[in-house]
Amino acid sequence: MIMPVRDPELAEVRVLTSAFFGSQTPLEEAEKYGGRPYEERPQQKEMAQYVAESLIASENLCIEAPTGVGKSFAYLIPSIYYSLKKKKPVIVTTETINLQEQLVNKDIPILKELMETEFTACLAKGRGNYVCRRKLELTTGNGQSEYLPSNSMVPEIVRIAKWSETTFDGTLADLGFEPQLNTWLCVCCEAVNCFGPKCKKFRDCFYWNARKQWDKANIVVTNHALFLADLKMKMTDDIEGGVLPAYGAVILDEAHQLEMNAAKHLGVRISESGIFTMLNKLYNSSHGRGLLIRPGTEASELRELVTSAFEYTNTFFNSIREYMSDFDDNQKRILKPNIVEDVLTGQLSLLERKLEEYMKLQEDADYKLEITAQLLRCREYTQAVFEFIMMRAEESVYWIETNDNSLKQNATLNYSPLDVAGILKKYLFDKEFPVVLTSATLSVGKKLDFYKKRTGFSGIEKILSSPFDYLNQAKVYIPKSIPDPMDARFEEQLGEYIKKYIEKTSGKAFVLFTSYGLLSKMKQATAAYFEEKGIQLLVQGEGISRSRMIKVFKEDIDSVIFGTTSFWMGVDVPGEALSNVIITKLPFSVPSDPLIEARLEKIRKEGKNAFMEYSLPEAVLKFKQGIGRLIRSKKDTGIIAILDRRIISKQYGRTFLDSMPPCPILIE
Ligand code: SF4
C-alpha cells in the first residue's frame, strides 16, 4: 500500500522502514540483545509498511495484528523514524502495565542497539505516581499536624521521606512498599497544589524533570488512563496543552478496550471516601489535626463547617445505601433525577465559599496553596454531586456502585458519556495527527465494522493473517450433548464436562467463566476431583492477586486456573503450562450492567436489533480474546473446549465460529 505523501520530508520514513525490514534486517541480531531468535515474519513487515504509510500520509489506521505478528517492532520502527523527521514525539499508549514494561525495558532497548539512528524514549506516568518534594517537606516539618490529618500516617511518611533521598525517579513503583492510599495522597504530586516553575523545589522535582524528558523524547510510552485524561483536559479546556507533550502521532495498542476505557476515563466518579479524604485534610476532629487547626476565629468557624459537612456526607450516602438496599446488584442505573434528597451540595458550597474567603486572608504561600487545593476539590465535588443528582450531563449514563455486600458500603456515583464514538471522532480521529489503532482482536466475522462504529474510527483498515499454523497447533472440541446454558441441567452437568476436558491435557488449563456465581459453583463441583488428581486449582477471587495466580500457574505446569473477565484477556502464558482453554459460556455481557443497558436501549430506540448490533459482536470480540490465550508462539499446541452448545445450535453461533482461527473442530 502506497499513500500520497503530504510532507516530502516524511517520504524517507517509508524508505527507512522498508530498508529495516528488508533482506539482512538488523532483527537477525535481536537475540544478541535479549530479543527472540530471528524468524522471518511477513505479517510484521506488512504491518510496519502500513504504519509507515499511515504516518507519512497523516491518515488514521486500524490494524488487527494477531498474536505472534510482532506488532510492537512493527509500529515502533516507523514511529521512531517518523518522530525524528517530524521532530515531535509519538505517543504509544497501552492498556496493561505488562506491555508498557515490555516496550520500555525490552523492545526499545533492543531497537537502540539495532537501529543506526539515535533516538530517545521514556515512560510517562500520571502525576499521582510521583512524590512531591514540597509536600514531603511540609508533612515531615514543624507543621506536620496541619499537613498530615492522622497520627497513624507518620511511620509511613518517615519511610517515604527516607526513600526520597535515594530514589532515582520518585515514583510509587520504586518505593518498595505499598503505603496506605490516604498517606500517599498527602505527599504525591497533584495538579491542584503544584507551584510548577515557581516552586522552590522545581529544579529537583521528580515529576517536572520527568516531563522535561517527555517533551524531548521521540517515543513516549503511556497508558490509556493517562492518554485519555490528557484528551479530556484538551476537550474541556479547549487548549492544545494537557499533560502529555504536543505529539505528532498516536499508536494505541490493546485498542480492543478503547470504548470501555473511554467511557471510564471520560466520565466522572464521585466516591464517598474521596469526599471524606478532602474533609479530613481540612479538619480531622478525632485526631485534632488538619489544615484548619490554625488559631483564629475564621479557622474555628470553618472547623465547625467541616464537622457538619462530615455529618451531611454521612446522611447523604446513607440515603444512597438505603436506595441501593432495594436491589440485589451492587450497581444500579439511575433513570430519573433526585433519587435521594440532596442534603450535601448546599453544605459543600457553603464550605467552599467560606474556604475561599479564608484562603484570601492567608500569607504563607504553602499553606494558602494547600487550602486552595481543598477548596478546588470541594468545588469539584459540589458540582459533580449536583450534576449527578440533577442528571444534567447530556447523553450520559448514570449509575451507583457499592461494595458487593449487603451493607452496600463505599458507594460511588458515576456518570459517563453514552456515545464515546462521537467524542473520539471529534477530539482524536479528526485531529491533524494520525492515530494507529491495533490489537489482536478488533474484527468480527473478518470485518472491522462493529469496532469502527463503537469507537468512531475512520481511516485505513487492515486485518493481518495469523503467523500460526492453527490447523496443526490447536484443536477445538464442542460437546453436543451438554444442555443449553438456559436449561437448569446445564449447571448440574457442567462440572463433569470441565473434568472431562481437563483430563485430555492432565490439567494445564484456563477455565474461563462469565460470572463469579458460576465459577464458585464449579469450584464446589470439581474440588474433590482436583484434589484426587493432585492438580493445583487456582481460583480467582480467593485472595490471591491475578499476577500471583499467573506466576504460580506458570511454575506449576499442571495447575488449572478458574477465572472470570480479567483472565479472558491480557494474559500471556506461552508453553506447555497453558495447553487447554475451556470456555464455559459464550461471553455475552450482563444486560443489567448500566453502560451496556443504556447502549442497548439507544440502539433499540434507533429501531435496530440490539442483539445483532451490539450484544453479539461484543461477545464475539471477548470470545476471540478468550480463545486467543491458547496459542502464543509457533511452538505452542493445545485444545479449546467450548461448553456452550449455542455455538452450534443457534443461528448466531455461526458468527462466533466464523471469527475463530482455522483450527479443526470436533463436535462430539
Ligand atoms: S514543582 Fe510541584 S510537584 Fe514538584 S515539588 Fe514543587 S509542588 Fe511538588
Largest pleated sheet: 7 strands, parallel
Unreliable segments (pLDDT under 50, ≥5 consecutive)?
none
* Strand order in space, largest sheet: 3-4-2-5-10-1-11
Number of strands: 18
Mean pLDDT: 93
**What small molecules does this complex bind?**
iron/sulfur cluster
Overall domain count: 3
- What gross morphology would you assign? globular
Rg: 27 Å
Share of residues in helices: 40-55%
* Annotation field: number of helices: 26
Kindly report how far apart the N and C termini lie. 44 Å
Class derived from helix and strand content = alpha/beta
SSE diagram, text form:
Blueprint: H1 11-20, H2 42-57, E1 61-64, H3 71-86, E2 90-94, H4 97-114, E3 121-123, H5 133-140, H6 144-147, H7 154-164, H8 181-187, H9 206-216, E4 219-223, H10 224-237, E5 249-252, H11 258-265, E6 268-271, H12 272-282, H13 297-324, E7 331-334, H14 345-361, H15 365-390, E8 396-401, E9 412-417, H16 420-429, E10 435-439, H17 449-455, E11 460-463, H18 470-473, E12 474-478, H19 489-505, E13 509-512, H20 516-533, E14 537-539, H21 546-555, E15 560-563, H22 565-568, E16 580-583, H23 594-605, H24 610-627, E17 638-642, H25 646-649, H26 653-658, E18 665-667
Parallel strand pairs: 1-10, 1-11, 2-4, 2-5, 3-4, 5-10, 12-17, 12-18, 13-15, 13-16, 14-15, 16-17
Antiparallel strand pairs: 6-9, 7-8, 8-9
The structure holds iron/sulfur cluster.
